[in-house]
Amino acid sequence: EKPVLVRTIDENPSYYDAMYEWFGTQLARVEPARFDCCYVSPVGGTPAANFGLLLRAIERFERRCQVLYVPEGGRQPVVLDIADHLVQRVVRARARDAIERYEFARAADLLQETGADPALIALAEHTAHRLHFDFEQARAALDAPATKSARNEGRELMRRLNEGLDALLDGEPCALVAELYYNLLVTYEQGRYVDFLARLFRLHEALLRLLVEKTLGLPTDEEKGRAHPAYTAGIEQAPALKAFLDQRSERGVFDAT
Q1: What DSSP character marks residue 3?
Q2: Angle ∠(134,105,61) on CA atoms, nearest 5
Q3: Whether the Cβ atoms of residue 188 and residue 157 lie closer than 8 Å to each other
Q4: How far is it, in rounded angstroms, from Cα 115 to Cα 122?
Q5: What's the pLDDT tens digit per position in 179-234?
Q6: What is the three-class DSSP state of 41?
Q7: Quick one: what percent of the chain has pLDDT higher than 70?
Q8: How far apart (Å, rounded) are the C-alpha atoms in residues 183 and 194?
Q9: Which end of the chain has the least Cβ crowding within 10 Å, N or C?
């Protein structure tokens, strides 16, 4: 048999704030990972003490906490669902916080834990892949059977996201630049400033290339480490442009090293 430890409450047992803090201090000494289950019977004490014990035990042990209640005149305890209800609310709040922080992979795991709509979980997974520029996996998340549960506005959102993915998977330049821009904003909001600067440099380069391709009709892709033949040919056919570029490059525009 394991010993029973008796703790004397040295605070005002009728004061809710004091009981909440006192039970928090007591349970902080217990490591939840050591136990498969924690049984709590918040009865017999003052309302404030019962309240403090119940909330602190659920906070500390979460789903390991089993709240017991012995009905008046009964002999067998009844397991209450209050712990599950409160934990569900906490997990949902964490999921909302993760979404607000653009941590969509974490949000997907938390939504899974709460038993959320499978379509919502798939949407979070899709967005997590998009943030890593993994468009194939983003498409797979939207094509998963779980998305079939989407209704009305959800289904319309899935359709628009799929259309956007079509452009990204086809390598449409404007779509790729827009994706990079919004990804850059996310890295800034998350405080990932090194990643932000790297994406900012890449966005600057991509915008310049897009302008050259759209306004001048010149391909900016390289071929065997040098400027594309159509690029050099296009500049040759525009003497004023070639002269302008040569004035700003000591090496000349045709040196692609």
Answers
A1: P
A2: 165
A3: no
A4: 12
A5: 999 999 999 999 999 999 999 999 999 998 888 888 888 888 777 667 778 878 88
A6: coil
A7: 95
A8: 13
A9: N
